[in-house]
């Protein structure tokens, strides 16, 4: 009996594929049910958990209004985070980054696309075709949370600021989920041998 095919990391291909599928299904479970038109109701602001006077960050739509005749893309926010929010504090990213930054890891992100020129991603995004057009903004936002460098404020870097992002589209341009696109994206991530 032949041993399972392994990469240089020593992990069996089946385990790597299972981890990739698990990550994709988790992302789909988090993103797909919450995809509501951005103009159906005002997007709430997300407060920091360090008290009533904490920094509030702008809300992020998951989809644009499918009934609108013209697509009006989400403009980039002019607000900048000035301190860590509660989630980063709970994850203790400063301590994590002393051990690893995700360098050498490729994360497949199936979402609304990712703007390859977004600030803080420093040319670490591979996005081809429609995946390079993020009209909604959610995919670019998520890419920043995953692999953002933090710019002049390294304490605001993402979970893995040394990782690369493989951007894949799982929605139409307005952010409406499409099962066929998600399926094709999972296959593309597997073919590209993304690590996560």
Task: Walk me through the structure.
By secondary structure, the chain is α/β, with parallel strands linked by helices. It has one domain: Peptidase S8/S53 domain (Rossmann fold, 3-Layer(aba) Sandwich). The chain has helices at residues 13-31, 86-91, 93-99, 138-147, 179-191, and strands at residues 46-47, 56-57, 106-111, 125-127, 164-169. The strands form two sheets. It has a three-stranded parallel beta sheet with strand order 3-5-4. It has a two-stranded antiparallel sheet with strand order 1-2. α4 links the parallel β4 (125-127) and β5 (164-169). α1 (13-31) runs antiparallel to α5 (179-191). The radius of gyration is 18 Å and the shape is globular. The two termini are 29 Å apart. Mean pLDDT is 74; it is low at 24-53.
């Amino acid at each position: 009996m032949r041993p399972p095919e392994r990469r240089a990391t020593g992990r069996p291909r089946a385990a790597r594929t299972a981890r990739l599928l698990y990550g994709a299904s988790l992302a789909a479970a988090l993103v797909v049910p919450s995809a509501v038109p951005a103009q159906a109701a005002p997007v709430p602001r997300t407060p920091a958990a360090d008290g009533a006077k904490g920094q509030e960050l702008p809300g992020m739509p998951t989809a644009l209004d499918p009934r609108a005749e013209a697509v009006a893309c989400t403009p980039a926010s002019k607000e900048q985070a000035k301190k860590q929010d509660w989630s980063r504090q709970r994850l203790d990213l400063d301590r994590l980054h002393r051990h690893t930054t995700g360098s050498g890891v490729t994360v497949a992100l199936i979402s609304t696309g990712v703007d390859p020129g977004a600030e803080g991603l420093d040319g670490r995004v591979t996005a081809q075709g429609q995946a390079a057009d993020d009209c909604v903004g959610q995919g670019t936002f998520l890419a920043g949370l995953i692999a953002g460098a933090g710019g002049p404020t390294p304490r605001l870097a993402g979970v893995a600021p040394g990782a690369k992002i493989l951007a894949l589209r799982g929605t139409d341009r307005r952010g409406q989920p499409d099962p066929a696109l998600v399926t094709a994206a999972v296959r593309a991530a597997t073919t590209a041998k993304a690590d996560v």
